[in-house]
Amino acid sequence: MDRGIARFSDGLTDYKPIWPVIEDDFYAEEKFQFKSEGAEGGEKWPELSAEYAGWKEVRYPGKPILQRTGDLVASLTSGTDPNAVRVRERKTLTLGSKVSYAIYHQSPAPRKVLPRRPEIMLTEQFKRGTMRHLHMYLVQIATQSGFRRGLRPLEVSGIMARAGWGKSVPSWARRV
What we know:
Oligomer: single chain
Largest sheet: 2 strands, antiparallel
Number of helices: 8
Shape: elongated
């Protein structure tokens, strides 16, 4: 069955209808990542140095780690932010930030001054959710194309939800 699905998915030419659903999941994931200061993704960000924490508290009181100006968090939690990177292509979706210092915090490269504080750390739950969306989309396309008969996408989603793969039906499946 996996080979059959793989062959079918190789022939699929456009995933754009499901990108908005995956984007929504990504932005929600990033909100948790910033709120938890990295713990959501499994790598709690190191505390600020005492010297910098004091400087920051005077100039930017109450601002959490990686949120001094708000540019980075805004760019990674909203696709409409001017600094957000959102490129939807037929088979790829690219999400990220145009904020110049974002790559420095994300990079695993050796460093001498600032510690690594990766703002994008996708959880297993996010990865499973993405695979669930892709699977449901493939089932929908297969059914619509006459490739498969039987359960409709909404029925498949109900079975998947009962099996622990998710609690709701994505909006792209409800529209069809």
